[in-house]
Design brief:
Radius of gyration: 18 Å
Structural class: alpha+beta
Shape: elongated
Order of helices and strands: HHEHHEEHHHHEEHEEHHEEHEEH
Number of strands: 11
Number of domains: 2
């Protein structure tokens, strides 16, 4: 499933059938944080037997939603790519629109900041994207979203590693529709690298129980200095 290969009605129906089974949906949601997990762990998360999980994983692999990493006798599963994560994130939008009291929406930490696959989503991701577009630090063009050199210099002064920050200038991102905010955050390779830099700098830390990202006091202070302010 790629932007270059639009879905026809039969492919769309097949994707719908893949999500119609709660165990398969649970597997996909468990991998939305960008992790790679073994079949046994995914079986426990989905609440099914190892044999049933194996059948579900095969269907998801055949459907192009999962990727596979084999290491010796061990097999590890992940989402196929960022496109799949963005599609799954967008699939939640109608649920948020119709029923704002869902468990996910009630989880304040998840709404505030979380991973969408491997990049920053939620209120913080949206506010960052909008603030830096307005400053001109992010540039939206026909080839995607890019980081401006002035932004890279400011981020290095704020504590990001110089070498990795300069590499961001070579990457491109894209607008990814946020399922709780219904606005855009930065996805794609640039979004992934920016999120990794914030984690490395200690501005964010990962929650243990779900894919929430927890802004640290120092991270919030430094982001505010860079024009990114969250409402309390």
């Amino acid at each position: 499933m790629t932007e270059a290969s639009p879905l026809n009605r039969y492919q769309l129906a097949e994707l719908g059938s893949l999500l119609a089974e709660p165990a398969r949906a649970a597997i996909l949601l468990a991998l939305m944080d960008g992790t790679t997990r073994p079949a046994g762990e995914l079986a426990r998360i989905a609440g099914v037997s190892a044999a049933t999980a194996s059948a579900h994983l095969k269907r998801l692999l055949d459907g192009g939603l999962l990727g596979l990493h084999e290491q010796g006798r061990h097999r590890y599963f992940r989402l196929a790519n960022d496109d799949v994560a963005a599609w799954l994130e967008a699939m939640a939008l109608p649920q948020v629109t119709r029923k704002a009291s869902t468990t996910a929406v009630r989880d304040a930490a998840l709404c505030r900041a979380r991973t969408c696959y491997r990049h920053l989503a939620g209120q913080l991701g949206v506010v960052l994207c909008e603030a830096w577009l307005q400053r001109g630090w992010l540039q939206a063009g026909s080839d995607g979203i890019s980081l401006d050199e002035d932004a890279a210099d400011a981020l290095v002064r704020a504590g990001w590693q110089p070498a990795s920050t300069r590499q961001l200038l070579q990457l491109r991102g894209r607008g990814c529709l946020d399922w709780t905010e219904r606005r855009l955050h930065v996805g794609g390779p640039l979004g992934v690298a920016m999120t990794s830099a914030m984690l490395e700098a200690g501005w964010l830390r990962r929650a243990q129980r779900n894919r929430a990202l927890l802004p640290t006091p120092d991270g919030l202070r430094r982001l505010a200095e860079l024009g990114v302010r969250l409402d309390d």
